[in-house]
Amino acid sequence: MCRVVSRRGQKRSPRRHIREQIDGYEAVDRKELVMHAPDGTDEEETGRGPTETDGTPARETLEALAVGDIGVEEAEARLTGYATTAAGRFDADRDRRRGIPEAVLAEGKRPVEAASLAKTALETTGRAIVTRATAEHAAAIRETVDADAPDATVEHDEVTRTVVVHAAAYEPPSLDVGVAVVAAGTADASVAGEAAVVAREVGADVDRIRDVGVANLDRLLDQLGRIREADVVVVAAGREGALPTVVAGLVAAPVIAVPVASGYGEGGDGSAALAGALQSCTVLTTVNVGAGFVAGAQAGLIARAIAGEDGS
Questions:
Q1: CA separation for the pair 289, 264 (Å, rounded)
Q2: How many domains does the chain have?
Q3: CA 294 to CA 277: how far, in whole Å?
Q4: Buried b vs exposed e over 132-158: b needs ≥16 C-beta within 10 Å?
Q5: Rounded-to-10 torsion of CA 173, 124, 112, 292
Q6: Torsion angles phi and psi, residue 201, rounded to 5
Q7: Which pTM does this prediction carry?
Q8: pLDDT tens figures, 232-269
Q9: Considering the domain boundaries, does residue 4 fall inside one?
Q10: 38 and 116 in a common domain
Q11: Cα angle 287, 293, 298; round to 5
Q12: Residue 291's CATH number
């Protein structure tokens, strides 16, 4: 039974407490729950037994924590929307709140930090998506997952520099919406692939079309039928970045341009491709240079809207 006490006038138990803030309520200790109403007054005892619940998510989470069915990180994620680790705070609620999953950017993080956040993502959401991962990041993630969740699948793509982990019981989303991810050249494949991974994880049916740059329009025209079948199109191109404009002039679907830093000399840092996309004479949307994740997420959000999964 939950024991209710006042904030004032009563000493707390000397035992170590696990504290969580839940909409103004303070839950203390795995075995003994001490709760206070947001207005500072005490709630009355309910008379429930130790395993009974009123069905509220907060109570169910606390009871699951008390009996050891879930750990502290998962409980925190359920109650606050994020989980705190030594490597940072993981936004476990983003998928529900925003419609796109939180990803771990490995770039700038030590392998052990990326692995820690991936572990937390797996524990709280059933999957982990890691971007800009090196071989060292991927190895650390695989080692951590193998130790903590040996039945989980780990997919590392060296070209896209992504690591995707799914728990054994995880059921990936599925949308009856097609997203075409088009790369102008092989040098653009990494950024295009990152977009494809993210769109796939949102649930879209992704079709990757490679090496159809404007230096030979026949290559593009040969694949135009496939591109036109898509509901959303992502186009990654470096150098002068002409391909998104050309594609956008040939299809009815929304087109998202991803400038890529795959040239050299003046504008080779992606600035020429970005300027070309921003000045496009056909209607398209442009993300930042190399922002494959953002492009894939935007394509996923459009796909969710088309499928009626955006809550509208």
A1: 14
A2: 3
A3: 16
A4: bbeeebbebbbebbeeebeebebebbe
A5: 30
A6: -70, -25
A7: 0.75
A8: 999 999 999 999 999 999 999 999 999 999 988 999 99
A9: no
A10: no
A11: 60
A12: 3.40.50.1970
